[in-house]
């Protein structure tokens, strides 16, 4: 059930758009002003005069220090919340700006207009870098990929979704939302944070998922799932494993892997849904006239996807009536430009060493054996119940540990080191499973992204080991520090030098690498800070001290 968190009158005039962040929310509309509010208590923070025309779209940057707005007159503006003023004006569209988005890094922005064009801007220089033409009508949605290399756009005029390569400045692929190009069009677009999957909320009351590696439709939510109400927004969870779809009468969480609902419908009066944001929970902002309402709903635990399927989905599976098939990609879509595999980020290579031990299941078998033994004479009922419950708990913990290892091993074998480390750092993770995994893999040839993810997870692993204070925890600390040392030796000098490398014009690839290196540097520093907690582990303390000293040399 979606619970109402805040409600307030934001404007005497109707509100057209909302930008929702983790701590602030921005509103804009026919009052021709951009207002910024604190999300926690709806306190008004700042207000900016936009222009002589109404505000039609808004977006917040990643750090929530800037607001981007588009107006009916065809201009866009960037507001600096730290300085409290409009810092940049971007003029170039011949007609209304329908959508706008900040780039994941740097100060680049994208806008889509009623003049059928998509523009990419360097907001620092107030210059238009690229203009993409080809849509057959108004552009309703734009969205950057998480790595900042691609830009997706959608138009109601031709029903097309187009994906553009920012580095090459050209079209990668165009495809329709249905067989009949203009019958269905995408209203909003969002990229998955973890893989090349694009989600679109469409005009036929569905949300559709597209695989951007195979360039095909993965599936679509069933329109009857939200009682024939129009789908307004969709957003991926932070892991990318589920998609939350918001309509006028409520929300629903869907499993991305099989496009099936994984929770019952989250009901709530979501009239005028305008913005949706997902993390551990789901936050949705609605507007009606000048009133803003913010709702919050808990998401289903994603590890229970296989078991947690709604009654409605089960009924559909048992029903002899088949659902309408998901629409296929338009065969007459625009010509594609082949995406060179060399442009993709590398993944950690598969470990080919054969001298690795398998995880022993003797502990699990011992639990089963004890549970099957008859109870001694004279044992009380309470003692029997306690032993059974403790046995079940231990069995559950061991099974969860084995499941984590299996998932991590599968990802590592597929060459995806980042996901392998994240699999060992999920909810209720086991530091013992981390030790079992690191004993069996070689962390010397990780990519930059995998090394950064390792450092991010290592901080949590070390803190968990320090809390355990056992001999095995000390052994795991040694394995964690050694893995981080290998990653630091491989990428530390390049990370340290990235920030001082000279810039040659506007280089999106360089911006991406600088951002990734800065992030990795912060994570390695955090690991060095966590190393102070392993002082009582003997050998681990010596290695941790050397690692911290090496970090200090590279990142003074």
UniProtKB/TrEMBL annotation:
A GO cellular component entry from the record: katanin complex
Region listing for Disordered, in residue ranges: 306-379
Keyword terms of this UniProt record: Repeat, WD repeat
WD repeat boundaries on the chain: 90-131, 132-174
Protein's GO biological process: microtubule depolymerization
Top-rank lineage group of the source organism: Eukaryota
UniProt biased composition (Basic and acidic residues): 352-369
Protein name in the entry: Katanin p80 WD40 repeat-containing subunit B1 homolog
